[in-house]
Amino acid sequence: MCASRGFTLIELLVVMVIIACLAGLAVISTGVAGPSRELNNEAERLAGLIGVLADEAVLDNREYGLRLERDRYQVLFYDEGRGRWQPLDDGSRQLPEWAQLDFELEGEPLVLPSSGDGREEGEENPAPQLLILSSGELSPFRLELGERRKDGLKLQLSSDGFRLPRVEVLVGKRPGR
């Protein structure tokens, strides 16, 4: 009898499935899904942050706010003793260089400054654009988080002032309104 000298079809299929699984894991781990996934994560993080701040505002009886710039945002709280807004922590959340924020407050578009616009070194932090009050209310807003490129993904967070924002994909929306 002669022994067969090749691989069976099942052995080849098993090897192909293993290679496909490893390739899929490599794609996921290196982030080839890229900016759209990262943008969605950032939008979910921001919506979650607003929700947590709304809860904290009610529980702590403290006013919070978000200071927004085109490429970053920072959490502030109102210090009644000093009578001014103070950063909650030392830093602001920097967006990836390919992402930007656009913001409407009560239906009116606001021009967000770029990082450091109009601020000198050591100058006080300006007031936040988005208020989160101890009564549980928010400033009615619409925030667009998107890629800077023309055909890039755009996500929206919005609130009527009473409900917490959810992340929604904007379809057919051009940047710059």
UniProtKB/TrEMBL annotation:
Record carries keyword Endoplasmic reticulum: no
Stated name of the protein: Type II secretion system protein H
Localization annotation: Cell inner membrane
Matching InterPro entries: N_methyl_site, Pilin-like, T2SS_GspH, T2SS_protein-GspH, TypeII_GspH
Keyword Membrane included in the entry's annotation: yes
Transmembrane spans: 12-33
Membrane topology, from the record: Single-pass membrane protein
Family per record: Belongs to the GSP H family.
NCBIfam families, sorted: IV_pilin_GFxxxE, typeII_sec_gspH
A matching Pfam family: N_methyl
Keywords assigned: Cell inner membrane, Cell membrane, Membrane, Methylation, Transmembrane, Transmembrane helix
Record-annotated General secretion pathway GspH domain positions: 42-161
Superkingdom of the source species: Bacteria
